[in-house]
Amino acid sequence: MDFYRAMAGLFILVCLVGCATQLAELSPQTITTSPAPQSSQAARTPQALGAPDLLYITNREPTVASGNRLSYGAKRAIFLSFGSVSILPKGNSSAGTSEFRVDAVSEAGRFPATPYGVVTTASGLRRTPEAVAAHEQAVASLQAEIARRLAAAGRKEVVVFVHGYNNSFDDAALATDEICRSLQNQFVCIILTWPAGGTGGSFFGYNIDRESSEFAVADFKKAVRAIAETKGVERLHLLAHSRGTDVLASVMQQLAIEAYVSRSSLWQRYKIANAVFFAPDIDLDVASSKLFAWVSDPDLAFGSKSTPSTLPSQGSLHLTVYSSPRDEALKASTIISGSVLRLGQLAVGNLPRGRNEAASKWEGSHMGGLVDFVEFSGGGGFIGHSYFLSDATIKTDLVALIRDRAKAGDPRRQLVEIKRPFWRTSDASQATP
Q: What is the pLDDT, as a whole number, of residue 333?
């Protein structure tokens, strides 16, 4: 391995470990948002000022944290756990600001260990009755947790967050809490946390985290399906950052194919209204292949047979990608992976040579208005990778997108059109305190 790749590995370690630290120590900013539509305006709950009880779902291995508190580490578990995590202000927060910490973690249930048991019968392989019963009990228990939160929520909608590389369980919880408080805790917020933070191997654990993110896909697909099928859920919003976007893209790919073969769509079957990718650490070509595999396969069965010209209605489904050509962490990731361009670096002015035709497929005319790219034109700190939490402009835009259901071009979004579907954040909005 040559010197330059080794140095790139060191650089990405510094970049992304710094990112994880920033999540844990973040102080929330005051953001200004337009009021929600009258039909969906919800009163602020007592939790809007802090200390929410978040639902977590994870395939991390359980550990014991300081104070004999339950937590989850960087090792992989062969089962999916879920439960509640409470967030409290730090006792030493300065006047006028609040920093937060993870408090109690309480596990509510687990899915059976994978792979589920099978038996050979005269008619072929069958899942064991014990495995099926345990799975159904776990789904029912998880859905009861979601339903309990829905009953107390101002909006009957769920926001799910998937974190990136080298984030601990606490990092993931604090980031989700920050997003939920930006949305005034009107939604049910769920942490999907995978076994990031591995050590050893090459590039200081980056390769281990990459494989752990792939390991998480099957479990998270089950989780998203169970969330979407919970009675009372009206809309589902899936958010991801950095390496977590690759996990989410894979989950959406598999669920989209499931929906398509049943003559349905991600919106119709799973109520997915928004997929939001922040600083996605995924190759541009790979992202396109995963997200639109069902579009590019006219031989895929639509019901009992293929119908090459037919696509189901996508309803309210929309993909928003936040990117920044100044993202130093993704520059390092590009070197390590040998990628031409990471999706989180995409901007009209930096399309790689020979990719103009491929990039044109992302245009609104080809994707039917399903996608918007928002270029973050601010700095976002030295590394420029965690702007989705540190920059008030991006947080305000997310609130307008999720809470107010404002489309790009709506004045509430404060975006400047480059050429649809490409936008950039407004300099004026960045100047706002």
A: 78
Return the pLDDT at 28.
Answer: 45
Mean pLDDT of the region 343-363: 66
Q: What is the pLDDT of residue 92?
A: 65
Q: For residues 48 and 85, give the distance between their C-alpha atoms in angstroms, rounded to a whole number.
A: 16
Tens of pLDDT, residues 68-104: 899 999 999 999 999 999 999 887 655 555 689 999 9
CA dihedral 188, 243, 174, 24 (to 10 degrees): -170
392-402 and 169-182 helices, crossing angle to 10° = 70
d(CA 256, CA 416): 31
Reading the block at residue 200, the tokens are 């050893």
Long-range contacts of 42-49 (CB under 8 A, 24+ apart): 42/153, 42/154, 42/155, 42/184, 42/186, 43/154, 44/154, 44/184, 44/185, 44/186, 45/152, 45/153, 45/154, 45/184, 45/185, 45/186, 47/185, 48/181, 48/184, 48/185, 48/186
Residue boundaries of the structural domains of the chain: 3-28+47-371+379-390
Round to whole Å and give the CA distance between 252 and 99. Answer: 34
* Residues whose CB falls within 8 Å of the CB of residue 205, separated by 6 or more in sequence, listed in order: 13, 166, 197, 198, 199
Residue type, 300: L
pLDDT at residue 38 greater than cutoff 50? no
Give me the count of residues in the chain.
Answer: 433
243-261 core/surface letters (b: 16 or more CB in 10 A; e: else): bbbbbbbbbbbbbbebbbe
